[in-house]
Each structure stands twice: as structure tokens, then as C-alpha cells.
Amino acid sequence: MTSSVSPEVGTIVHFEHVNFRIPDHRLAHLYFCVGLGLTRDPTRMVGIENMWVNAGRQQFHLPIGPPSPFRGEVGVVVPDLDAVAQRLTEAKGEFAGTQFSCRREGETLRTTTPWGHPVRIHPFGLLPGRDRQAIPYVELWVAPGTAPGIGAFYRDVIGCPVEFAPANGAPCASVTVGPYHTFRFVERPDGGAVTHRNHVAVYLTRYHATYEALARLGCIMQEDAREQFRFHHMKDPATGRLLYSFEHEMRSIYHPDFGKPLVNRVPLPWLVD
Fold this sequence. Notes:
Layout: E1 12-19, H1 25-35, E2 39-40, E3 52-55, E4 58-61, E5 72-78, H2 81-91, E6 101-105, E7 108-112, E8 118-123, E9 134-142, H3 147-158, E10 162-164, E11 172-176, E12 182-187, E13 199-204, H4 207-216, E14 220-225, E15 228-235, E16 242-252
Parallel strand pairs: 1-4, 5-8, 9-12, 13-16
Antiparallel strand pairs: 1-13, 2-3, 3-4, 5-9, 6-7, 7-8, 10-11, 11-12, 14-15, 15-16
Helix pairs in contact: 1-2
């Protein structure tokens, strides 16, 4: 019998942003705002060193800096997939000489940013969730044999619900990081940690207990300060073996940005010249 209740949410209650370092805000605006139809946040980071782009209740943070490799995929939900495909096609000439790409794959668009970050665009309604714009998941490609231990790390150390189910035939640990939001760890032959400056940010309850649990395992990379800390290492809770590394910005729900309203736009075709 299928339960009619909502899925459980654990210690992490909200996934907020993905951070990619990039060298050019003009091309970033063209890709994320003009192409994907997202909105530059008008209340924060309006200088020339960083750029925050709103996608429903999530964001892309795009500080200026050398781009880093990203083995994985970020999912984005948009209200009109065809409109996004048309705008990206029209902008293609502006991306000449970059790593930009865009092609249809089934009901989605598989794209890469001008700096090679894989982004898959989904039409609203294809994935669970109520937001017409969103970043519903971050997928990370990990080494064969590591997904079960990574899932156990999130479940036993941090306190997140975890589902183990294949993704396109590959072993995968899917971690709930908020309502309708997941981090997916998919095993691939080319998977594994790489040196980079990318990160994700989340808000959590049990903030101090989680910090202490991660500290005992030697996972902390930036100590507790002003309602946030950072960790990167994911270790098997049973053996302590390092399985994967990816930077997480962990914020208390007392952090001043928790629940901050984000301005979004939904372009309407009859208002476009």
C-alpha cells in the first residue's frame, strides 16, 4: 500500500545554492538570465566580484575566478522548456569559443555553461515539486563502490533520509536535502573527487550536534563562525575511509539569510518583443 503522507525531511531542511567560480559575468548573464530565464538577485551581491542568480527558492552564486571542473550535473526546472531552447539557440553565437553546448535529450535539455559545468533543464511538471523555477538536485559522479558508504554518511552522521536506487542502471545514493530537493551520488567509471572551488549550501537543524559529529570524523574544513561552517570530506561511518570530497556550506536556521525572499521573474511570451 502506497503512503499518502509527504516524504520525511531530515536534519537538512533547505538546499539554498550552488556556487561556481567563473571568469565573465557578461556571459553568465547571457546564459543564466537571458537563456535560462532566471533573475539576478537585486538585493545582494550587485557589485563586480560576485553574481547571485535566483531560481525559485534556490540560487546560483557566481563569483569571479578561475573556473573549476565539475564531475556531475545540476538540474534546473523552468516553466517553458521550448522558450529556453529557443533563447539558448539564439545566443549560441555569443558563446563561440567557449564550452557551451545545448541539445535535446528526451524531455529535457542537456546543456553546459560556457565554462563546462553540466546543467540539465527540465520542464515544470516532469519532476516532483511545486516551484515553476527551481534547482531540484545536484548530481555528483563518484567512484565505483562508494555510493553505499556516502549514503550511510549522510544518513548516520548528518541525519538525512537516503534512498538507494539505480540511476540509469548505475548505483546511486539519493539524499534528501529539503522538500523535493536531493543530492545524488551516482557511481561512474570516471567518477571521483577533483580539485575545485565549487560548493553547495544548505540550512540545517541540530546544527551544533552535526558540527560535532563531523568534527569527530575529521571532515570539517572551516570552523563554526556566525551560524555557519563548512565540511568537505565524506567518510564511511563504519570504517572512517574517505569516500569523496565536496565542499558544503552548512548554515543554521538562525543564519540571517534563512527564509530570505527571492525575487523571480517568469517571462511571458506576449511581453517579449
